[in-house]
Amino acid sequence: MSDSDFTITIGDETPPNSRDRKDAKDALENTSAFISEWTPFGLVASYFIFSTCLYMYCNDNLIAIFWFIYMCTNFYIAGATVLEAFMSITPFRESRKIVAQAEEKGWLFPTPHDQLLILDLLIVAYLPNEQDIIMDRALYALEQIDYPTDKIRINILYNTPHTIEPLETELHHLPLRYPHARVIKVPNSTSKADNLNYFLTLDTGSDLIAIYDCDHYPHPNGPRWAMERFKADEEIDIVQGRCVVFNTEDSFLASMIAVEFDKIYAVSHPGRATMWGFGLFCGSNGYWRTSLLREMKMDGDMLTEDIDSALRAFSRGSKTVHDLNVTSYELAPTTFPAFWKQRLRWAQGWAQASLKHLKMVYDKPSSPLHENYNRSCTARFGVFSLLLIREASYYLVTQYTCLVFSFLITKFPTSGKELWKFVYFQYPVSQWLFMISVICLVATLLITNSVKNEFVTRKMIVIFSIQYPGYLVLMATIGLYGHARQLVRYSSWNPTARK
Fold first, then answer.
1. Which residues contact 463 (CB under 8 A, 6 or more apart)?
2. Which of 494 and 339 is assigned the larger pLDDT?
3. pLDDT at position 8, please?
4. Residues contacting residue 273 through CB under 8 Å, at least 6 positions apart
5. How far apart are alpha carbons 194 and 35 in whole angstroms?
6. Is 90 exceeded by the pLDDT of residue 325?
7. Which of these, 390, 327, 328, lies nearest to 354 by C-alpha position?
8. Residue 472: which residues within 8 A CB-CB, separation 6 or more?
């Protein structure tokens, strides 16, 4: 019998020095994570406090100058917004006309079935976060999408840090019931970009690739409308559809986001594309020519890899169009913490993309796709407005807010009339700038009302209009927070909560 047979292990075998080093390392990592998480908050809070105090000590002449700058900026933003809204009227009317023509023909689309392009439709999921909805969305896509099954493949791409049963087994059994289904568990993936890039290494023989987040219900005819756009114009590289929020009854927040999405997807995006000459892929309900997407892939270092890919495509001369008939229905966050996390990620992602692609304003384009491609002055100014003025507007809105706070502290109004004067009518020119801005806002919301989806009511739009000034301040604050996170190189990826 050897001595080892008498070895007795008591407690943890790790040497005391190793345990101390491990504890010290864990403490250091926790401290670093705490600092990384809360430093942006400290920066934004300091920004508001310092700015408000600064205005308290400015003389009347300086205050007048600041006031005039902020009101003029607000006028520019409101004017650009209403111009985009008016520009969106034509695309909306054209989309309605096309639907009416298809309905008159008994929903016979121009392209015969045997001439349809081959489509890979991707449903991208992160299972611990979306395990409750992935099977429902997969079955919906497999059973409801109106596209010949020999021309489409429904691909379920998912990643998960741990096995989830019996869900994963049920997913992998789907191809046995539906020949046009493909289920792929992406190895070593930690993000949507990883999932997509893995799929792009596969040779599937498709002509088009459609990308959908897991919470989406594509309209049954959505893929067909998108395909018809590609067939009608061979120069089109990307078709971005309209995203509609359908869970408006879940919470007040979700109903307001639904109005916001109508304003973005049915008004701002098509209007901007018409006015500036370029569209944007928005992450979901977007269709790419397979050759272009395989060549470009997704940049996993970007928090909003969709916006980055959209701007990279535009920089190469790719043509992106917004089609209001390519509709998809999605979930909006129902709680403020979920909304806050989602928008912070978007804000930091936009800041990253803006820094990376602002050079398109002045650089000489080089496109392997189009030899004679030359970015127009209109498109360059559109990029300038989208990437610089939009990011700078966060500071202008919040500076105006700080200026008002300083008035409330130093000259606290004793009546509602005085408060109204302090906020909007400090100087005579403010009256004209304010009234014009209000007219622009009303016009934009009237146009939004005319294109609202079936889940949005007129009452929702009225409520959204009333709280719009507060919404602007909130979004500007989130934008500043995103900048602060980018400054400290915050890199945690927080997926949007689903249910």
1. 255, 256
2. 339
3. 43
4. 91, 279, 280, 320, 321, 322
5. 28
6. yes
7. 390
8. 397
Angle at 144 between CA 222 and CA 250, to 5 degrees: 80
Query: 419 pLDDT exceeds 80?
Result: no
Which residues touch 89 (CB under 8 Å, ≥6 apart)? 447
With b for 16 or more beta-carbon neighbours within 10 A and e for fewer, the 253-290 pattern comes to ebbbbbbbbbbbbbbbbbbbbbbbebbbbbbbbbbbbb
Record the tokens describing residue 366, joined without a space. 């080089």
Cα-Cα-Cα-Cα dihedral sign, residues 354, 358, 361, 363: negative
CA 268/CA 83 separation, integer angstroms: 9
> Does the structure show a pLDDT above 70 at 495?
no
Residue 306 identity: D
Q: What is the pTM of this model?
A: 0.86
Share of the chain above pLDDT 70, in %: 85
Do the Cβ atoms of 40 and 485 come closer than 8 Å? yes
Contact criterion met (CB below 8 Å) for 263 and 448: yes
Q: What are 386's two structure tokens?
A: 């989208």
Q: Mean pLDDT over residues 488-496, rounded? A: 68
Q: Which domains does the chain have, with CATH numbers?
A: 46-78+383-487 (no CATH), 83-375 (3.90.550.10)
